[in-house]
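B., you asked whether I could sanity-check this one before it goes into the benchmark set. Here's the sequence:
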Amino acid sequence: MITTIIFDLSNVYLEGILGSHKYFEKKVGTPVSDTYFYNEDFKRFMLGQVTEDAYWRSVIKENSWDISIDELKTAARKNFTEIKGTREIIERLKKEGYTLLLLSNHAKEWVEYSEEKYQYHQLFDEVFYSFSLGIAKPHKDIFSTVLKRIAAEPTECLFIDDYKKNLEAAETFGIKTILFTTAGNLENELTNLKIVKRRKILR
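And here's what the prediction gave me:
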C-alpha cells in the first residue's frame, strides 16, 4: 500500500533550466543547445560546491559568449514556471492524506527564488535538495538517506521523476516509480494505481 509519494521538482512541478536559452539565443548570435549548460560546474552547483555566479562564469567562458551573468540569471528564472496541472494533483494527494516529499537535484539560489515565488514547499511534509545533502540523483545514497529519515518502507513509497536513471536507482530499493511526461499522464498513472479516483484527465 502506497502511503508516501516523492516528487521531483524540475520538469515535474516547475520547468527547469531546459529552454531558458530561448531568452538570450539572439544576443549570442548563434543557436544554443540545452547541453551548453551541463558542464562540470553545473554538477558542483547542484551539490552546493560553487555559487551561481561561478557556475555562469564557467558557462560564459567555455562558450565564449558575450553575455553577462545577470542576463543568464534572469533567463533561468524566467523559465522557472509551474507546469500546468501538477500543483492541482499534489493538492489532491495532500487532501487524501498521503505523506508528500520533494526530492530534487537543485541549487540553493534557484530554490530560494522558486520557493519564494511559488511557495510550493508548503505542499510537502519534507523537502530534500541535492545542494543541502551533498548528494545528487541518481546516486543511491540519496535514496537511502531519504528512506532513513522517513517513517515508511520502500514498498510504501512512490517516486515521480522525469529522468529514467533516477527512477531506476529508486527501483533498486523496491520503490515504485512513475516516469513524468505531463500532468495528464501522471493523473492517469495515479488513477490506474488507485491512488486517485478516476475523473476527466488533464490535458
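One thing to flag: The chain has a mean pLDDT of 93. Otherwise nothing jumped out at me.
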